[in-house]
What we know:
Blueprint: E1 2-7, E2 17-23, E3 30-31, E4 36-42, E5 45-50, E6 55-60, E7 67-69, E8 73-79, E9 123-124, H1 126-135, E10 150-151, H2 153-161, H3 187-202, E11 205-213, H4 215-227, H5 237-248, E12 257-260, E13 265-268, E14 274-276, E15 278-280, E16 283-285, E17 288-289, H6 297-313, E18 326-328, E19 349-353, E20 357-363, E21 366-380, H7 386-401
Helix pairs in contact: 5-6, 5-7
Amino acid sequence: MGRYLFKLPDMGEGTAEAEIVAWHVKVGDVIQEDAPLVDVMTEKATVEMTSPVGGTVVELHGAPGEMAPVGAAIAVFDVKGEGNASAPAAPPPKPPTATAADIETPAPVTAAPAPRAHREKALASPAVRRRAEDLGVKLNLVHATGPANRITHEDLDAFIAGEHQPVRGAGRGLAKRTAVEEVKVIGLRRAIARQMQEAKRRIPHFAYIEEVDMTELEDLRLHLNGTRRSGQPKLTVLPFLMRALVRVLPDYPQINARFDDEAGVLHRYSAVHVGVATQTANGLVAPVVKHAESLDIWAAALEIARVAELARSGKGSKDDLSGSTITITSLGPLGGVATTPVINHPEVAIIGPNKIVERPVVREGHIAVRKMMNLSSSFDHRVVDGYDAAEFIQKVKAMLEHPATLFMD
């Protein structure tokens, strides 16, 4: 028998460290070669790493949320043969987080679990937490069998089927709530928090909101969806907005740009790489539609759907999630009346369509019911003047209100 040290590999592009997101094993587990071992995150891309060897896990270094430097030993295996323990391991980033207690035989799920200590935090995914809250179940009473002592849906099912049934009844909604839950901000959520904080700290935002009559564009969109061929995607407002941007942006190169404020250099792009803010289980991510200027309406819709699915599944690469020159953010049917979106640093502009609503408006002295939408936007006032921003949005508005111009050279 020998020892094999698994060191965090170099993932390229100058990456010096990665955050450990989740372990798929615990100390004492027997793992096969190429089986899932650990998820790590660099920038906003999460990578699943597999085991390089088959053997028994004897050490794990780094808890979820901790950073591990490239080249550090993050896992140690007992393997058949000599292994690679003769090569000195880089210092581990943190003391081992797994101990002998991790390999104790878990109690049967049918047994009543011992309550956790009052200050101990129950680990569970957001979906499990929401379900437990809906059922009236306190997670600190549920026995955990998942990786890293996490509570799974199966654990919740076992608890509900056992002796400890959730309390139901009219009186439950009137009971005092005293619990305080501590949730460590790690992984993608931490990266998002840092990005938003950096954007607001460095960029002097100013917002501009304009209402747009979407009646003609909505009629066109519904017609195209009703007559689309097999294989063509269902059109939303976003491909039309993207088309309007690529038509107008050449006249405003300072808006389709990225500002390196440390170097004092504004990079103005002829290519339009559109970030599409997408809600995922872990937070808001902005995958990128590259070269939107080369896509027609149908191709843009397909590409929006493709990159959004990559973001939601967590399979997007660093290239899929970076390089945007301007971002679109939309809350869809929850779009509200107006928003003040945060610029995706180091870009200088972000555009957000709000909800389309039918309401009465005055047109040529008469009241008519029209489909109206507010278009919210934010700009970096260091490089975009208010007049230019307003003029830019007015031209985008004109194209959306007269959709035939979107397709005219």
